[in-house]
Amino acid sequence: MEMHRAKVVQKLTLVDIDTRKQNLEAAGYNQFLLKNDAIFLDMLTDSGMNVMSDKQLAAAMTGDDAYAGSRTFFELADKIKEIFGFDFFLPVHQGRACEHLLARVFVKPGDVIAMNYHFTTTRAHIMLCGGSVIELNLPDSLDNSSANPFKGNFDLDKLKALIAEVGPQRMPFVRIEAGTNLIGGQPLSLENIVAVAKICRQHGILTVLDASLLQDNLYFIKVREAACKDMSIREITRALADEIDVIYFSARKLGFAKGGGICLRSAELYDQFKELVTLHEGFLTYGGISITELASMTQGLEETMDFDMISQGPQFIAYMVDELDKRGIPVVKPAGGLGCHLDARAFLSHVPQAEYQAGALSAAIYLASGVRPMERGTVSEARNEDGSEHFADVELVRLAMPRRLFTRSQIDYAVDRIHWLFENRGLIGGLRFVKEPKVLRFFSGELAPTSDWSDRLVAKYKADFGDSL
Ligand SMILES: Cc1ncc(COP(=O)(O)O)c(C=O)c1O
Predict the structure, then answer these.
(1) Which of 6, 159, 389, 444 shows the greatest Cβ crowding within 10 Å of its Cβ?
(2) Mutation test of ligand 1: which of 43, 181, 188 has the most ligand atoms closer than 8 Å to its C-beta?
(3) Quick check: is 12 in a domain?
(4) Active-site residues: which are they?
(5) Distance between CA 28 and CA 449 in Å, rounded?
(6) In this structure, what is the dihedral angle of CA atoms 407, 408, 414, 416, given to the nearest 10 degrees?
């Protein structure tokens, strides 16, 4: 049950399927390029879409607007110290700004950055600085038949072997991603974080926690890790933060606000980062974020320590996963954080991976429902250096569940339309690129169907639903 109530609402519109098809064509079959007026339920991302609380809005109104020395900044830095125990905090405009600065400070050509799984912008920044990324995920982390509750865990043997092979001098840090985004928001356990940090300490390698998706991960540690069941969310947070050298986060995800930040323990490192923040982001007490956002972040981080406030997201995701699973629809299990993830490879097993199964299914979902999902498969990958396609390990369609946003009946609607699509999946075909940017192509690339499948899908929809939207 939602332990909150709506105080402010926004009207939604659902346009008819012919208009949805026109919108999709105008957007080059890329969900990122759809205009928001064209969308009924926006499940593209949780980023910046979490719903603010009355207390956050109130805090925003009383923020102390100043270019330098704002009281609001110091209140946020105090909250960071209280929750994570870190002495230094640098605000930046969003998560990828943290990644840009971390890569600039730590990564040299030839360095190897180990992580439980990569994230798109993280990897791009590391590669731009000449480093490479090695994923140390578990053998069953991508296996839907495995019920492992912590598929985001590091494979500790792989970590030890990598350090032995590469040597700690070429590994400036190990990146630990809470709630691994690209493998379905799967969490790591506190036990695994402690073990990774221990190995890193033994070799003098820094640990960097990407805490963008920490909120859902905290929930999963409490409900799935037996040793933590009697710990409060605040205690779990502190126990894991105590293991880590550097924490960064996108506050568009963590803290129900916008912006981002880097938390540091060492004054020396703080001095190095400080210069880059003033150069690329803004002055040290606002970092390119508005004061209203800094104020709402402070309150949002406090709410993140409240089990009632952080349960709704993972519980609604679990509900959607169960409903789809009951209907035989291939979905990532166990339910993770961030959103519900469909396995597009299994859903569209008749479409070759080279025709972007996850991209095609995302487009078909928008056509059939006005729901906007996100492709998290091969379209989200960069091509290999020789120009050949780099196939993703998994072809996922993410239906993000921004925290505190959707109602159960909206989720039921999405389930119902995805079910219809599953029954008519044979009609869905593939996509090909018509405009393909070199960097982060999924954001602005344009695609087209490889046949007239979208016309046939629209015709079947009309035959089944008549004039109904
Ligand atoms: C795990 C993770 N790290 C970093 C980022 C980047 O954050 P931002 O979108 O605020 O730049 C994201 C965004 O989705 C993320 O999920």
Answers:
(1) 159
(2) 181
(3) no
(4) 67, 119-120, 210, 253, 376, 442
(5) 9
(6) -150
Q: Containing domain of residue 452, as a range?
A: 17-46+310-465
Domain-located, residue 10: no
Whichever domain contains 412, its CATH number is 3.90.1150.10
Nearest to 342 by CA among 274, 225, 422: 422
Shared domain check, 266 and 408? no
d(CA 296, CA 380): 31
Which atom of ligand 1 is least distant from the CA of 252?
Answer: 10
Q: How many A from CA of 364 to the centre of ligand 1?
A: 26
Burial class (CB in 10 A: 0-12, 13-18, 19+), 268: exposed
Tell me which residue of 364, 366, 360, 324 sits closest to 341, measured CA to CA.
Answer: 324
90 within 8 A of 270, measured Cβ to Cβ = yes
Cα–Cα dist 285/299, whole Å: 17
Rounded CA-CA distance 192/248 in Å is 19
CA–CA distance, 346 with 351 (Å, rounded to integer): 10
Per-residue pLDDT of the chain (469 residues; tens, 9 = 90+): 899 999 999 999 999 999 999 999 999 999 999 999 999 999 999 999 999 999 999 999 999 999 999 999 999 999 999 999 999 999 999 999 999 999 999 999 999 999 999 999 999 999 999 999 999 999 999 998 899 999 999 999 999 999 999 999 999 999 999 999 999 999 999 999 999 999 999 999 999 999 999 999 999 999 999 999 999 999 999 999 999 999 999 999 999 999 999 999 999 999 999 999 999 999 999 999 999 999 999 999 999 999 999 999 999 999 999 999 999 999 999 999 999 999 999 999 999 999 999 999 999 999 999 999 999 999 999 999 999 999 999 999 999 999 999 999 999 999 999 999 999 999 999 999 999 999 889 999 999 999 999 999 999 999 999 988 8
**Do 53 and 4 form a contact (C-beta atoms < 8 A)?**
yes
pTM for this structure? 0.94
List residues near ligand 1 (CB under 6 A).
47, 94-96, 119, 121-122, 177, 181, 210, 212-213, 250, 252-253, 260
251, 259 in Cβ contact below 8 A?
yes
Task: Identify whether residues 60 and 192 lie together within a single domain.
Answer: yes
Residue with tokens 């009281």: 71
Asked whether residue 6 is assigned to any structural domain, the reply reads: no
Calculate the dihedral angle through the C-alpha atoms of 382, 385, 389, 393, rounding to the nearest 10 degrees. Answer: -60
Q: Show the tokens assigned to 105.
A: 């400070």
Q: Which two tokens stand for residue 413?
A: 């609607």
Pairing, β 246-250 against β 41-42:
unpaired
